[in-house]
Amino acid sequence: MENKDKTRVCVIGAGPAGMSVLYQFAKLGKIPNIVCYEKQSTWGGIWNYTWRTGLDHNNEPCHSSLYKDLWTNAPKEANIEFPDYTFEKHFGKPVPSYPPAPAVRDYLQGRWTNACSSDLKQFIQFNTIVRFVKFENNNFVVTIDDRKKKVTSQEVFSHVVVCSGVFNYPNQPEVPDIIKFEGRVMHSHNFRNAIEFKGQTVLIIGSNFSGEDVALHCLKYGAKHIYISWRTQPTGLKWPKGIEERPEVIRFGENNAYFKDGSKAVIDVVIFSTGFRNHFPYLDANLRITEDTSLYPDGLYKATLFLNGGNNKLFYIGAQQQLYTMTYFDCIASWVCRYIIRELADEPKSGEEMKRDVTKWTSREAKLASVKDKVDFQADLLAEICSSSGYDKSILKAVSLFDDLIRHRKEDISDFRRHQFRSIYTGSLAPTQKPYMKMFDDTLETFLKC
Length: 450
Ligand SMILES: Cc1cc2nc3c(=O)[nH]c(=O)nc-3n(C[C@H](O)[C@H](O)[C@H](O)COP(=O)(O)OP(=O)(O)OC[C@H]3O[C@@H](n4cnc5c(N)ncnc54)[C@H](O)[C@@H]3O)c2cc1C
Prior knowledge:
- The protein is an alpha/beta fold.
- It folds into two domains: 4-169 and 276-404, FAD/NAD(P)-binding domain (3-Layer(bba) Sandwich), CATH 3.50.50.60; 178-272, FAD/NAD(P)-binding domain (3-Layer(bba) Sandwich), CATH 3.50.50.60.
- It has helices at 16-28, 76-79, 87-91, 101-113, 209-220, 326-340, 351-366, 371-389, 398-411, 444-448; strands at residues 8-12, 33-37, 124-125, 128-136, 139-146, 151-157, 159-162, 184-187, 201-205, 225-229, 243-246, 249-252, 256-259, 264-266, 269-272, 300-301, 305-306, 314-316.
- The strands form five sheets. It has a five-stranded parallel β-sheet, covered by helices on one side.
- Helix 8 (371-389) runs antiparallel to helix 9.
- It starts with 7 loop residues before the first strand and ends with a helix.
- The structure holds flavin-adenine dinucleotide.
- Flavin-adenine dinucleotide (FAD) binds next to helix 1 and strand 4.
């Protein structure tokens, strides 16, 4: 059995997932020896908008995929609002269900500062990149690169929690003859300001949540016409005038795209909204999960504890496909913290028991068909984790909010954000906000005038 005093925890990334680890340790009042390495100069992860693409201020791969004027794509009551720190508490009044990114960031930051008795920043080393993590002699040797001090060093930890995000390494499939296309080709990771496509005809490859949002965004900011190309099946959504769906692109010409149904379209720009890879380049290969994205990455007990290396001391948070988001990370983080300090009554389990449990979930995932099935899957998983860690089970009530969201999106994809929701925790109904297609100002000040 491990000596508690030797516990030293490394958290990689100070986005919502990594911050939940620090927050939950603080909430327990049992903060171990812990360091969080963050390559950006501040906390917030994806929610730090940057104008940069390609390389960041340290000449490292730019992390954030956030674009200007992004409003959340699900009501905050479903997957962002925390039971112990509501939006109403943070802003002093109920606010609309679909906040713009600056309001989300402000809220998160509020929880990490106002709702926490410890100064969480003291545990974070900013502008520090984790370059390599290997497991030897029952510990993790972590190589870090401090870009401020210009020092590379190695630190030893008993536990590592990977919270570096999954929306930063684009998945870009090859499409025949794309090299012949003379217009702009980009991935949504580098999409920043839709105004640049005003008057242009845009082809979006990929009809997932991100493709849908980028399409509406381009229309809102004046694109002439938008095609969305799907591969598996059409979205079945009622698109506003100016957006139309086409099947898979089979090849490109100099200024056009040819689709599987024999049609073709003249286009100015191609935006790949083909998702991201679960890529963790800094982990020794034997500590990595697969690059394919899923709701329950294989080999992760409780969707977090890595079983294939690291002697049950390596965790991933936020590496799953996301419907539940912030509350999911927070709930898993509470389990991870208690697991590390050995305060879970029903853990640890034997290796065989844990593997059987993983198979139970991965087999179930293989049979899921609809978005609703996926939400229920995540809720059932969270229910188990809440039972084990004692996290507030009220977060499970969000299932009915997701049901409403699915219905609202089907009714009107361009204006589903007009619906307002009740907070699960305060019962307050969110005030109305302008129709999405008419909201152009994403500032916190304007949001708070609603
Ligand atoms: C365009 C877009 C829109 C979204 N919209 C919504 C929404 O409306 N609602 C919602 O709930 N969720 C949304 N999400 C999901 C989003 O992923 C989560 O909300 C959340 O930000 C994920 O948190 P995270 O901490 O796992 O990852 P991130 O927010 O990505 O944070 C990871 C952190 O790790 C750091 N890092 C990475 N590598 C290293 C390294 N080697 N060394 C040190 N630090 C490192 C990064 O700099 C970053 O700060 C959206 C995502 C995207 C991309």
